[in-house]
Amino acid sequence: MNSYYDRVEIFCEGTQIADIPVEDVEMSIIGQVIYNAYSFNNSDLVLLAVGLNPTLGYTNELCKKSKQDYQLVSTPPSEQVPQVITMFHTSTKFDEGGNMRSINIQDATGEHQVHVRPLRNALSVEVGV
C-alpha cells in the first residue's frame, strides 16, 4: 500500500505533469536547498527546489539567467513576520534546456551544478479512452 510520502507529484504552471516514486528523486542537499532538474518532452527543463526559509513571508522563484545558468531568487518579507523557520518548494518549467546533461543554479550559498535527468512517468492525457 502506497502512503502519501511514497510519491512526488510535479506541477508546472498549476498542472500536474508527473507523479514519480520518491526513490527516483535525487536528494543532493546543497546548503539548505534540495535541487532536482529533469528533462521533459526531450527539450523542456523542469527545475525543483525544496528548502528552508528563516522566517515566514519569503517568496522563492527559479529564474533563467542563460541557457545553462539559473538562479534561485529568495525575497524576504517586506513587513514584520513571526520568526519561524518555514519549508518552501518551488518548481518551474522552461521551454528549452532539457537536452543538457547538467545545469548551474546560483543561490545565496554559491553556484551548484545539478545533473539533468529524464522525467519518467510523465502524465499524458489520452483522448477517447
Characterise the protein shown here.
The chain is mostly beta strands and 129 residues long. It has one domain (4-118). 0% of the residues lie in helices and 54% in strands. It has strands spanning 7-12, 15-21, 29-30, 33-40, 44-53, 59-64, 69-75, 86-94, 102-107, 110-118. Strand 3 (29-30) and strand 4 form a beta hairpin.
What are the SSEs and their pairings?
Elements: E1 7-12, E2 15-21, E3 29-30, E4 33-40, E5 44-53, E6 59-64, E7 69-75, E8 86-94, E9 102-107, E10 110-118
Parallel strand pairs: 4-10, 7-9
Antiparallel strand pairs: 1-2, 3-4, 4-5, 5-8, 6-7, 9-10
Helix content: under 10%
Global mean pLDDT: 77
Strand content: over 45%
Radius of gyration: 16 Å
Q: pLDDT under 50 segments (min length 5)?
A: 27-31, 123-129
Structure classification: mainly beta
Question: What is the H-and-E element order?
Answer: EEEEEEEEEE
How many helix segments?
0
Shape: globular
Tell me the domain tally.
1
Query: How many angstroms does the end-to-end distance come to?
Result: 27 Å
Kindly state the number of beta strands.
10
Largest β-sheet summary: 8 strands, mixed
What attributes does this structure have?
129 residues; mainly beta; eight-stranded mixed sheet; disordered C terminus
What's this model, at a glance?
The protein has one domain. The protein is built from no helices and ten strands. The protein has strands spanning 7-12, 15-21, 29-30, 33-40, 44-53, 59-64, 69-75, 86-94, 102-107, 110-118.
